[in-house]
Amino acid sequence: MDVSIGIALDDEQLLPSPGARRPAEHAPTTTIPYHHVLRSTLQLVRAHPVLLRWGLYPAAMFGAFSAFWTTVSFNLNGPRFR
After folding, report:
1. Residue 61 — left, alpha, or beta (φ > 0 → left; ψ -120 to 50 → alpha)?
2. pLDDT tops 60 at residue 1
3. Distances (CA, A) of 67 to 15, 51, 59, 62, 71
4. How far is 26 from 60, CA to CA, in rounded Å?
5. Which segments of 1-82 does DSSP mark as H helices, in order?
6. What is the pLDDT of residues 15-66, one digit of tens each?
7. Residue 60's pLDDT is what?
């Protein structure tokens, strides 16, 4: 089945050749270096504490999800399930 999908996607009408790619329509309008942009994120978090709280919620969910599935994989790898 993977081969048939690959053949279908190989059609030039679906995937244009790499040389046919257009450049971005909008050029960057700032000359600020990237590390300054990252630093501005910290300034925003200091100015608006709610951003920190709403950023920690998904981080905690990601940590809980990872911890749960890591533990499940260790348990499923145990002698009871072989």
Report:
1. alpha
2. no
3. 39, 25, 12, 9, 6
4. 36
5. 2-9, 34-47, 49-76
6. 556 666 666 677 778 888 999 989 999 999 999 999 999 999 999 999 999 9
7. 97
